[in-house]
Design a protein that fits this description.
3 strands; alpha+beta; 67 residues; Dodecin subunit-like; elongated; 3-stranded antiparallel sheet
Length: 67
């Protein structure tokens, strides 16, 4: 039976929330194998002069451990 591990990452983008999430998965997959799913735990934004400058996503990534 496979064992699943969960890690938490924080990813950001100046383009938007979806880009932040995709960037996070892309970067995590460079060192983590067997990624199964991603859960967006929280969303954050940085604001400057009344405008959103950066979108951030705090995500939990689930992956299967090698047997």
């Amino acid at each position: 039976m496979p064992v699943v591990k969960v890690i938490e990452i924080i990813a950001s983008s100046d383009k938007g929330l979806e880009d932040a999430i995709k960037t996070g998965v892309k970067e995590a997959s460079k060192t983590v194998r067997n990624i199964d799913s991603l859960y967006v735990k929280d969303i954050k934004c940085h604001v400057k002069n009344g405008k959103i400058t950066t979108w951030g996503a705090i995500c939990k990534i689930s992956f299967r451990l090698d047997e």
